[in-house]
C-alpha cells in the first residue's frame, strides 16, 4: 500500500469548494476475486488502494478530497480483522457529512470454490495458521474453519453491500459486471439498484440473490429442434414462450411481487436487490424473463441484467 504524503496532515476539505468524491469500498472473502475487481476499477480511472486499515479510512478520504481527487477505490478485508468493526460506522459518518458518495461491493463465493482456489494456488488463507506441508486432510479442515470464521467477521459488511457471487465467474466476466454496476450508479447515486440475473439450477443457486424464482415448470424451448441452440434473447424463442399463458402468468406474478415490495425495500435504505430467475440450463426461459422484467422495470428503477451462464461464454 502506498499513499502520497502523511495522512495526519490532511485537513477536511470545504464542502463548497471540493467536488464530490466517489468512494468505492471493495471487500469480500479471501480468494473471491477482489484483486480482479480492483484492476477493473483502476482501468476505469479510479485511484485504488489495497488493504487499507479501517482506522485510516477517514483520514485517507479527507486527504483524497483535499487533493480534489474524484474517484477512489479502497479494498478492505479480513487481513484487518482487528478493526473491521469500525467500517460500518465510518461509512455511516461519510454518508452523513456529505461531499462523499459511498458505494460498497462485496465479493463472495461458495466455500467449496474457495477451498479449491486456495488448494490450486497453494496460498495460505489470511486466518489460517496451518503450514502447507501438513497433512492434506488437516489442511483442508483448517481452511474450511478459517473461511467460516471469515464469513462471521465480514457478515455486517456483506449485509450493507452489493454482493457478487464469483463462484463460477471468469475474471473477464467479473470485470464486466463491476464496470456495468458503476456506470449505472453514476446516473443515480442514491436510488436502489435492481439486478435481474438468469441462472441454471444444475450449476447451483447464486449466493448473491435476495430473491430466487424457479421457472423450470414452464414450457422448455430446449425440446424444439429449431430453438435448442438459440437463447431467450432471440426472437424465435421469445415468440415461442409468449404463446404460452403460463409464461405470461409467471412474469406477472414476479412483477406484482416486486412492485409491491420494492418501495418498502427502498425506504429501508436498501441500495441493491438481486432477483435471480432459474431454469434448467440458464439459456431459454430464465433468460427470456430476465430480459422482459429488466425492460419493464427500467422506467421506474435503476436496473441491471445479467445472464450467469451466457455471460461466461461471451466474456
Word description of this protein:
With 315 residues, this protein is of the alpha/beta class. The chain has 2 domains: 7-185, P-loop containing nucleotide triphosphate hydrolases (Rossmann fold); 193-314, no CATH class. It has 10 helices and 9 strands. The protein has helices at 34-43, 57-66, 87-97, 111-121, 136-160, 171-185, 235-242, 245-267, 285-297, 308-314; strands spanning 21-28, 47-50, 71-75, 100-108, 162-165, 193-200, 211-214, 272-279, 302-307. It has a 5-stranded parallel beta sheet, with helices on both faces. A 4-stranded parallel beta sheet has the order 7-8-6-9, sandwiched between helices. Helix 1 (34-43) crosses helix 6 (171-185) and helix 4 (111-121) crosses helix 5. It is globular. Residues 1-18 have low confidence and may be disordered.
CA gyration radius, whole angstroms: 21 Å
Q: What kind of sheet is the major sheet?
A: 5 strands, parallel
Shape: globular
* Average pLDDT metric: 86
Number of strands: 9
Order of helices and strands: EHEHEHEHHEHEEHHEHEH
CATH level 1 name of the largest domain: Alpha Beta
- The quaternary structure here is single chain
CATH topology of the largest domain: Rossmann fold
Amino acid at each position: 500500500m502506498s499513499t502520497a504524503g502523511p495522512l495526519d496532515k490532511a485537513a477536511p476539505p470545504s464542502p463548497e469548494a471540493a467536488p464530490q468524491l466517489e468512494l468505492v469500498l471493495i471487500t469480500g472473502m479471501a480468494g473471491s476475486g477482489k484483486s480482479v475487481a480492483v484492476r477493473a476499477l483502476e482501468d476505469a480511472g479510479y485511484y485504488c488502494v489495497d488493504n487499507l486499515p479501517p482506522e485510516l479510512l477517514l483520514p485517507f478520504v479527507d486527504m483524497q478530497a483535499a487533493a480534489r481527487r474524484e474517484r477512489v477505490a479502497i479494498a478492505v478485508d479480513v487481513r484487518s480483522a482487528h478493526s473491521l468493526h469500525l467500517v460500518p460506522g465510518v461509512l455511516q459518518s461519510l454518508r452523513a457529512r456529505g461531499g462523499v458518495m459511498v458505494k460498497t461491493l462485496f465479493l463472495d463465493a461458495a466455500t467449496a470454490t474457495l477451498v479449491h482456489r486456495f488448494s490450486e494456488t497453494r496460498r495460505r488463507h489470511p486466518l489460517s495458521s496451518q503450514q502447507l506441508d501438513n497433512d492434506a486432510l488437516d489442511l483442508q479442515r483448517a481452511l474450511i474453519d478459517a473461511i467460516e470464521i471469515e464469513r462471521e467477521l465480514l457478515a455486517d459488511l456483506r449485509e450493507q453491500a452489493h454482493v457478487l457471487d464469483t463462484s463460477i465467474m471468469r475474471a473477464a466476466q467479473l470485470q464486466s459486471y463491476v464496470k456495468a454496476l458503476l456506470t449505472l450508479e453514476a446516473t443515480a447515486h442514491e436510488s436502489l439498484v435492481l439486478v435481474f440475473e438468469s441462472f441454471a439450477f444444475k450449476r447451483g443457486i447464486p449466493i448473491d440473490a435476495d430473491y430466487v424464482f424457479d421457472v423450470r415448470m414452464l414450457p422448455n424451448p430446449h425440446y424444439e429442434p429449431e430453438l435448442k441452440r438459440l437463447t431467450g434473447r432471440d426472437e424465435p424463442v421469445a415468440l415461442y414462450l409468449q404463446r404460452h399463458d403460463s409464461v405470461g402468468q409467471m412474469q406477472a406474478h414476479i412483477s406484482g411481487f416486486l412492485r409491491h415490495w420494492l418501495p418498502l425495500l427502498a425506504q429501508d435504505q436498501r441500495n441493491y436487490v438481486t432477483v435471480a430467475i432459474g431454469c434448467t440450463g440458464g439459456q431459454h426461459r430464465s433468460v427470456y424473463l430476465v430480459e422482459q422484467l429488466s425492460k419493464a422495470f427500467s422506467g421506474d428503477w435503476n436496473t441491471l441484467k445479467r445472464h450467469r451462464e451466457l455471460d461466461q461464454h461471451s466474456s
